[in-house]
Design brief:
Blueprint: E1 8-12, E2 33-34, E3 37-38, H1 39-49, E4 54-59, H2 65-69, H3 74-82, E5 100-104, H4 111-116, H5 119-122, E6 127-130, E7 134-137, H6 144-155, E8 158-164, E9 174-182, E10 185-193, E11 204-212, H7 215-222, H8 233-238, E12 246-250, E13 254-257, H9 261-274, H10 279-290
Parallel strand pairs: 1-4, 1-6, 4-5, 8-12
Antiparallel strand pairs: 2-3, 6-11, 7-13, 8-11, 9-10, 10-12
Helix pairs in contact: 9-10
Bound molecules: 1-O-phosphono-alpha-D-glucopyranose.
1-O-phosphono-alpha-D-glucopyranose binds next to strand 11 and helix 8.
């Protein structure tokens, strides 16, 4: 199928990170590290791996450190160079000039509103959305967004990452009403944001990754507040179903909900165990710790 290339990704990063206070009082939650890379760096790397060039950050007040993270660290780099030391660890923190765009969401009016704040930068082309606290860990070269962009080249239209969770967790998420399934693809017949307990149409949730057509921005412009009194992206997407193809993609990899403390610790442990430099040490320590 002839599809327009996905060149842009939107990263909503304006949230206050209240679940991680006091850690996130002065440090944006997106800069919390999993081992030694901040969550936002994994998200950007995932987008780059999928061939995406322009990263659009929808940021909020007091979180300018995210912008600094993707800039040159002049003093650090000059000092390390003068000492003959490597700055290889900074690889990936600098995007091509002009490829990191920052817009502000002035008020916390919801995810749908945050995405809408990027409308003029996205323009009239399909785009990706990555929620950095949904940490998706795939095999090298096969990250979640890469898998979604590959699927998009087959299906066109709109895609969300679909993930099975225990039924009792569905009230915390956007939930799919699934249709026919074929391999990793599930047709989406409906979407509901944060369904009341016992009412979810399935246990398949939207796991923080989207490939959407630009028409969603027009819908968001007049989208009324939904669950939690917020303007919901899920509601805007729901009204596109039927007009455009809509599929869920099952991610082949591991998902860590780094919006929760337990998920964040799990991610750190899992990635530490994979590391050549510290993996063996952490494995021994964990064994001793749990007896
Ligand atoms: C958002 C979305 C929801 C999605 C979730 C994934 O909810 O609105 O549809 O399932 O992210 O983490 P939030 O976590 O911002 O409440």
């Amino acid at each position: 199928m002839a599809t327009k290339k996905i060149r842009k990704a939107v990263f909503p990063v304006a949230g206050m990170g209240t679940r991680f206070l006091p850690a996130t009082k002065a440090v944006p939650k997106e800069l919390l590290p999993v081992v030694d890379r901040p969550l936002i760096q994994y998200a950007v790397d995932e987008a780059l791996e999928a061939g995406i060039e322009t990263m659009i950050f929808v940021n909020g007040r007091g979180k300018g450190a995210i912008e600094d993270h993707f800039d040159m660290a002049f003093e650090l780099e000059a000092t390390q160079a003068a000492r003959g030391k490597s700055v290889a660890a900074l690889e990936g923190t600098r995007l091509k000039p002009g490829n990191a765009v920052f817009v502000r969401q002035q008020e916390p009016l919801g995810l749908g509103h945050a995405i809408w704040c990027a409308r003029d930068i996205v323009g009239d082309e399909p785009f990706a959305i990555i929620l950095p606290d949904e940490f998706m860990h795939g095999a090298p070269g096969k990250g979640c967004m890469k898998q979604m962009v590959d699927a998009y080249e087959q299906t066109g239209g709109n895609l969300i990452c679909a993930l099975e969770v225990p039924m009792e967790q569905t009230p915390s998420y956007g939930v799919l009403d699934p249709g026919a399934q074929s391999g990793a693809l599930t047709e989406v017949k409906g979407l509901v944001e944060k369904p009341a307990a016992g009412t979810a149409p399935s246990n398949l949730i939207i796991a923080g990754r989207y490939v959407l057509q630009p028409e969603v921005m027009k819908i968001l412009e007049t989208q009324e507040a939904g669950a939690g009194g917020e303007i919901q992206l899920t509601d805007a997407m729901a009204s596109m179903i039927g007009d455009q193809p809509f599929h869920g993609v099952t991610f082949d990899g591991q998902r860590f909900d780094c919006g929760s403390k337990a998920g964040y610790i799990e991610a750190n442990l899992a990635l530490a165990l994979e590391r050549e430099d510290i993996g063996a040490h952490i494995r021994e320590f964990a064994k001793k710790l749990v007896g």
